[in-house]
Amino acid sequence: MSYDDVEIEDMEWNDELNAFTYPCPCGDLFQITKAELQMGEEIARCPSCSLYITVIYNQEDFMGKGSDSSKKIEQAGGRAIAIICEP
Fold it and tell me: What pTM does this model have?
């Protein structure tokens, strides 16, 4: 059973780990990469203990659709935000 359900917006982007992270009670960080999110993975694991969380997100936000994509994921201040481009 998942330790918690966490929205992707509540996670932080970590350039060093190249992953979205969220604090684990053990003192380490739950981690999930963009590639994992693109493949539909929703479990972020802690490398130091057996806990994991379920990440709530829209997989389409992480799909590479080229330059005509209606949504793009960008990092701002270490936090993930979705920018919606209206035609």
Answer: 0.71
